[in-house]
Amino acid sequence: MDETWPTAQRRHLPGRHDLPIIVGGGIVVAVVLMAVLAPLISPHDPLAQVLPDRLKPPAWLPGGSPAYLLGTDANGRDILSRIIWGSRTSLQIGLLSVLLGAAIGLSSGLLAGYRRGWVDALIGRLADIQQAIPLLILALAVIAVVGSSVLNLVIVLGAGSWLYYHRVVRGEVLAIRERPYVEAARAVGAGDWRILSRHILPNIAGSIVVIVTLEIPQVILFTAGLTFLGLGVPPPTPEWGRLIFEGRDYLQGAWWLTLEPAAFLVLFVLGVNLLGDALRDRLDPVRRHH
Predict the structure, then answer these.
(1) What does R_g of the chain's alpha carbons equal in angstroms?
(2) What residue spans define the domains of the chain?
(3) What is the second-level CATH architecture of the domain 71-288?
(4) Residues 288, 290: Cα–Cα separation, whole Å
(5) Are 211 and 165 in contact (CB under 8 A)?
(6) How much is the pLDDT for 79?
(7) pLDDT tens digit string along 131-182?
(8) What is the mean pLDDT of the chain?
């Protein structure tokens, strides 16, 4: 490296500490683009059944066809197209569920931490009730009653995951509300909404971003688990968990039915975890200074 470069310029060159955010961010962006552009890049209709072409292996294996790069399933549907469209369904469930849970947890955490008193006690009792009911049991009970659909999954998973956000936000608000700049704002007559929006919320935004980033793959994995129990996304809608579930009976003769969507799921979870860890290191002042 040229020693005449300014020190500040050299300091901002990508290094090994930037590798997780580059790799993780690249994977996440690629999957998001795949989901958004699904109608344009999908080689086939993901629901179209071509029975004469059923269980064709991937193109690089004997008997494979260039028309089906990743092979076909037991109904002759193109696996690559179903993975591409499945990414849209999986991301939709993951993102909307996490945003719903974050909205509920953020609102309750801000209210409980800032108001304290009976408001905090009431929300705390509701949180204790929520914690006493495992999310899996709650999801199984609700979906068994109201039926399985993307909307129902989003509502159940979102309403069942607010507790984590609530506890983090409440703890940070309790600490921040006693800071001198908050006391100064209160002393000059700033209203509660102004204090929350201008002085408290910006200081907890980093924690919320990190939690949201790390929760998305967890929700997608949880949805895949529900599919294995028969309560996930209903067929024939393509979704990564359902694709894995549908290939379970063909592991010996048609392993690609399960392995290929599972590989995409694992890769996406790895990318989001790398991105979440990198964001946590960047946004956490304690970690940043070490």
Answers:
(1) 23
(2) 71-288
(3) Orthogonal Bundle (1.10)
(4) 5
(5) yes
(6) 93
(7) 888 888 888 888 888 877 888 888 888 888 888 888 888 888 888 877 887 7
(8) 83
